[in-house]
Design brief:
Layout lengths: L1 E2 L22 E5 L5 E5 L5 E4 L2 E4 H4 L6 E4 L5 E5 L3 H7 L9 H10 L7 E5 L5 H10 L4 E6 L2 H15 L6 E5 L2 H8 L5 E6 L8 H7 E11 L2 H14 L6 E3 L6 E4 L2 E4 L9 E6 L21 H6 L2 H4 L6 H19 L9
Parallel strand pairs: 8-9, 8-11, 9-10, 11-12
Antiparallel strand pairs: 1-10, 2-3, 2-7, 4-5, 6-7, 12-16, 13-16, 14-15
Helix pairs in contact: 5-11, 6-7
């Protein structure tokens, strides 16, 4: 178990991503056919395509939302990526939580400015960025991750987007069930977000850390995980009855009178299940409802174990490549000239 340090740089002191493009900025370039590429601006370098070269120096100094032309006259729209754009293109150690789910997590867990939030695991840092934005500089985010290489990628991704290491964010390496009591005192946490294979294994320490009325939210991928964590939450007797849902997004093509749903949609990515922490010695009133077949046997429980559910692993070679990309982006972002432009 180890706890990584945080920078003394205050996130609130770093200017927002606005104004003319600067060296080290990430820029989203959209070509004539709508294809998007995200690059980091480096003086003297160029963005190469099969239809010419766009010099980074021609972008640096231009206002956000400019159209720039490469050496053969092909135009590209240059925009700073939104957070939703950034998390979809950043280097990944583990699978990310998609923006549609991140938005629902912020809403359903009621993440608010100044909140003390626990997150496990940190993955590639996508959800960490959303949580940091929601809690503001007065809040605190304590993230927990078992794998050091994932924590390194997440830290670099956050630094790339924010331009610094936020001083209200920490990453603790180790198992949440073992490390949380050492990091967060009892009844000191407002919200807990669990993105892990077996969140039911951590409910004991989570229940001790949460304030009465606090929210626990679990993000799980399969119905077997959803069923098990729901029954585990009920079994503690410490929470309200859990609520479960999933979010799907269907885009629409709107061009003149040609209005129709897109052929593709963002369907199932995961389930969200939430519950509120009860006050000590409180017994939840029993719900009146029709009897249902809710019993399960040992064989059913075995099907819910982490080994049976399976866990996708990233190869060491791929992980090293992603870590290098994240580290390079973070270094460029931190080295940006953040002085406001002279009018």
């Amino acid at each position: 178990m180890s706890n990584t340090g945080t920078s003394s740089v205050n996130q609130s002191q770093v200017p927002q991503n606005s104004g003319p493009f600067r060296p080290g900025d990430r820029v989203q370039l959209t070509g004539p056919k709508g294809r998007m590429n995200t690059i980091a601006l480096i003086p003297g370098q160029g963005f190469h395509t099969h239809r010419g070269i766009l010099a980074h120096d021609d972008i640096i100094g231009q206002p956000d939302g400019s159209v720039v032309t490469n050496n053969v006259g092909v135009e590209h729209l240059a925009l700073r990526p939104l957070l939703s754009d950034f998390v979809m293109s950043m280097p990944r150690g583990a699978a990310i939580i998609y923006p549609k789910d991140a938005a629902q997590i912020l809403a359903q867990a009621d993440i608010f400015p100044g909140a003390t939030v626990v997150e496990a695991g940190v993955g590639s840092g996508a959800l960490s960025l959303w949580l940091l934005r929601a809690i503001g500089s007065s809040g605190r985010l304590a993230s927990f991750e078992r794998r050091e290489e994932f924590a390194d990628v997440a830290r670099d991704n956050v630094a790339t987007f924010l331009g610094s290491d936020p001083d209200n964010w920490s990453i603790t390496l180790g198992d949440l069930a073992e490390t949380l009591p050492d990091v967060m005192p009892a009844h000191s946490v407002d919200r807990v977000v669990l993105d892990m294979l077996a969140p039911w294994e951590c409910l004991g320490v989570v229940s001790d850390a949460l304030k009465p009325g606090g929210v626990v939210l679990c993000y799980v991928a399969t119905v077997t995980q959803l069923s098990r964590v729901a029954e585990a939450i009920r079994g503690t007797g410490l929470y309200t009855n859990p609520d479960s849902n999933e979010t799907m997004i269907r885009g629409w093509h709107v061009e003149g009178l040609a209005v129709r749903p897109d052929h593709r949609m963002i369907g199932h990515t995961g389930f969200l299940i939430t519950a509120r922490r009860l006050a000590p010695d409180t017994i939840l009133p029993e719900l009146k409802r029709r009897p249902s077949k809710t019993d399960f046997e040992d064989a059913d429980v075995e099907a819910w174990t982490p080994g049976a559910l399976g866990e996708r692993n990233v190869s060491s070679k791929s992980m090293r490549k992603r870590a290098r990309a994240a580290s390079t982006s973070a270094g460029l972002s931190k080295a940006r000239d953040l002085e406001p432009p002279v009018e």
